[in-house]
Amino acid sequence: MKVCCICKISKLLINYHKDKTSKDGHSYQCKSCAIEKAKKHYLNDIEHSKKIRNNWKQKNKDLSIKLCKDWREKNKEKIKINHKNTEEKLRENLSYSYVKRLLTQHNGFSKEHITNELIEFKRIQIKLKRLLNGELV
Length: 137
Ligand SMILES: [Zn+2]
Prior knowledge:
The chain is mainly alpha-helical. It has six helices and four strands, in the order ββββαααααα. The protein has helices at 31-44, 46-59, 61-74, 76-93, 96-105, 116-132, and strands at residues 2-3, 10-11, 16-18, 26-30. The radius of gyration is 26 Å and the shape is elongated. Zinc ion binds next to β4 and α1.
């Protein structure tokens, strides 16, 4: 048993990270306090953490790509659902990119002919159509 220097709770050694620099070979703070601290540090310094992560990515490009690929492979369903939710939100809010896509893919406009006025016009048209169909806008 060991008392954590942060939460002052007595816990089994298994609840402490190993630390060769300390007398008993275990960290002075328990795992949950260490995790809490790391979280706070991360949130306080997201930019710094990002830099560290990007540096790591740069140095470990192949591994980073492989890990990313593995993650995507393991989370196919999650990605699918997220993508669907995002699409639904874009559709609901009649986002610029959604309306632009409608104009180019379904109305035959080319990208360079799309103006803000045209997007606004299409938005109104869709809203009217949805109203007529009884959809809430
Ligand atoms: Zn603790």
